[in-house]
Amino acid sequence: RVLTFDQYLDEVTARPEILLRSAAQYLDDGIHSFGRSPIDRVYGKVQRYHLYDMEASGGRGRVIGQEEVQEAIAREVSHIGRQGQTTRLLLLHGPNGSAKTSLVQALAKALVEYSHGDDGVLYRFNWIFPTAATQGKHVGFASVAGVPPSAEASYAHLDPRAIAAAVPNELRDHPIFLLPKGIRRELLDRLVAEERFPENFSLSDHVRSGDLGPMSRQIFDALLTASGGNLAAVLQHVQVERFYLSRRYRRGLVTIEPQLHVDAMARQLTMDEAYGNLPGVLRHLSFWQFSGDLVDANRGMVEFSDLLKRPPESFKYLLSSTEKASVPVGDNVLYLDVVYMGTTNDQHLAGFKQSPDFPSFKARLQLIRVPYLRDYQVERQIYDHQLTEDVVGCHVAPHATEMVALWGVLTRMRKPDPEGYPEALQDQVKALRPMDKVLLYAERRVPDGVPSKQRRDFLAIAPDLYKEFDGEQVYEGAFGASPRELRGVLLTAAGDDEFRCLHPLGCFRAIEGLIRDPSLYDYLQIKPAEGYHDGRAFLAEAQEHYAALVDDEVRDAMDLVTRANL
């Protein structure tokens, strides 16, 4: 875990594509390191990124569905990495409970695991100053004769008892920044000329031109001056240390809740017992220590949870931070290497679009839509995964979670406009009921009213039906029953004393209780039109669908018994 600077340079030369990545390139590699696989949905083939299937935290880290969003996140992170500098904040938006936060948290958990692997190695550095007994008269650069110490040995591996003072680099700067820009440029150009990087790798502006944080820059300059320009003597005091990303300890992964202050701060350090042991050449310096959310997130990812709940004045600094990769703190400017992500609900985003500040932010935001799921069989997997027998305290009967998911997805449907489809199919599109759309999305089941000679053509327009409202503010999946509410329905049904298990009939009763007070739910206040937006009618359809399933299963069971007795 601990290297001298020379050892670090040897590793850089051996694996520059690993140790000279920007935060965006690191995230990009981390995302792809877990692999992906194609999935065929009714709207086309999509990639499922396996990091969202991780069973971290007892399985609570999984994100079921949302493959289109996974692709969008991976695509935008790759774009930032290729661009060479973070210039945008990726803002996930959608209705409440659509898995926006879950997607970001799953990514963070995967990055923690990635940082512990060989390809996920990250290094920072500390300044090490030995005791007088270790170095004789030459403590640091405090030699009376002004002769710099020998640079033959590094202090990186000193016994802790032989260290008089250790100054960490709070920003976790790239150790490569310790090379002056001219020398660094020569090294990087040589590595490029020797084709040590993969063909699709490009060095970021941050790695090429980035600089040390204010405190480390003061120490570096003071030591270089005191040593008469002897760079090797300065690097003698550098201890390169591996670190690991951590959400719990806020190392490179930070979530910022809505608040009213800039997410970084500075405080002046006093020469207390620890810093009083610094060599004399450093004691006259006025050190400022930087801390805060953005400082903790450097070299990784920061999530602004519910970003637009904050007044715009509180996050206007993000305009310059994303453009210049820096944030002003007092009289200093901190240069950061961070991937910015945020979450917000559609209502707050719609309000922000009406704000006079929105045009300024528009170029700095990359909007990624996270709608409710519209495949009830996929949604059912959420409840099967979360509400096991151990959680609900009873047996989960067949079709219980399926019926709740079916009703929930029915509430999210919008009536299609037949004008946008082939003339031969317009009558069939006009006649589509919510249940027809749900079964088409989940099972590719063509409605019974479609003539046999048109069934193939009708199935071919399923992707168009699925994406019809994507360009609108009120898109399909922007409203309807939230998975959080449906989870509450299932828990209510599990506690129904009339049933000894979580039963579909108990679920229907719990749904009926939910729709009894429509004032609590916006989607129940939408005026029903041509079979759409009618929660009570959807309940009847779900009950009818359940009865048909049971009837089919009973017939199948009787057929099996009859054959066994033959």
Question: How would you summarize this macromolecular structure in one to three sentences?
Answer:
The protein is an alpha/beta fold. Helices cover 42% and strands 14% of the residues.
How much helix is in the residues? 40-55%
The gross shape turns out to be: elongated
Trace the largest sheet across and list its strands: 8-11-14-4-15
Task: Evaluate the radius of gyration.
Answer: 30 Å
What do you see in this structure?
The protein has 566 residues and is an alpha/beta fold. Helices cover 42% and strands 14% of the residues. The strands form 6 sheets. It has a 5-stranded parallel sheet with strand order 8-11-14-4-15. A 4-stranded antiparallel sheet has the order 1-7-5-6. Strand 2 and strand 3 (44-49) form a beta hairpin.
